[in-house]
Write a structure and sequence with these properties.
Elements lengths: L3 H4 L4 H12 L1 H7 L6 H17 L13 H4 L13 H18 L14 H10 L1 E3 L19 H4 L1 H4 L4 H6 L2 H5 L14 H14 L13 E3 L1
Antiparallel strand pairs: 1-2
Length: 220
């Protein structure tokens, strides 16, 4: 950060430009891959807020002219366009989930990037899958069965699938000789059996249109 005496020589427009170009840009590079604790996000926003309103690391309530959430609104909505780090981080990381399905030519494709349960849940809740030939669509995770996922159709059965298998079994592989059934582990009760039969009837035999195209594409 600039020394205090230099920061005070800048007007608020200059400090706003500095916040956007430096104090926001630096943590955003980290947020692409990391999910820091909320206290870290709050500390970063505190520094941004202090620099913008007072030209120093901290600013008291009297220095802050506008609520910080309002500052983070887009300019078109009356804000100042500063990135909301708490929301930007998950959005950036969810973007990798999108690109992993739509652009396999990326250099990082296949590296096994880590995502939180909330980020995965947000992605799968926001997309449906046009499975194409089924090579990229995940059998247990993606919403490929009439716009729904297995976890939505058969939650008890889904809980019997090891996490590793959920992330590896593709639709094409799962439908081959019904190999998806071999992923089921643990204690099977009446609820699981009922959901198993329901799922079986929904995906067997697979409609020809499901496995016609050569690609997979998640859609909002």
């Amino acid at each position: 950060m600039l020394p205090t005496w230099k920061a005070r020589l800048m007007n608020k427009a200059g400090r706003l430009a500095f916040v956007k170009a430096v104090l926001s840009a630096i943590p955003i590079h980290q947020l692409l891959a990391l999910a820091p604790p909320k206290r870290i996000i709050k500390a970063l926003e505190k520094i941004q807020r202090g620099f913008l309103w007072a030209g120093r690391a901290e600013a008291n309530g009297g220095n802050c002219h506008v609520n910080w959430r309002r500052v983070a609104w887009p300019i078109s909505l009356g804000g100042l366009g500063v990135h909301d780090l708490e929301r930007t981080g998950p959005a950036l990381r969810t973007r990798w989930l999108w690109l992993s399905r739509t652009d396999s030519a990326r250099a990082w494709s296949g590296l096994g990037l880590q995502f939180s349960a909330d980020e995965r849940a947000f992605f799968f809740a926001s997309t449906t899958m046009q499975i194409g030939n089924g090579q990229l669509a995940l059998f247990w995770e993606d919403r490929w069965i009439d716009g729904r996922s297995v976890s939505e159709i058969a939650p008890a059965l889904y809980s019997c699938i090891p996490k590793r298998r959920r992330k590896l079994r593709t639709v094409a592989d799962g439908l081959q000789a019904n190999s998806w059934a071999r992923d089921i582990q643990g204690t099977i009760g009446i609820q699981e059996i009922g959901e198993y039969l329901q799922l079986w009837h929904m995906i067997e035999p697979p409609p020809p249109s499901r496995l016609a195209a050569p690609s997979a594409l998640p859609t909002l």
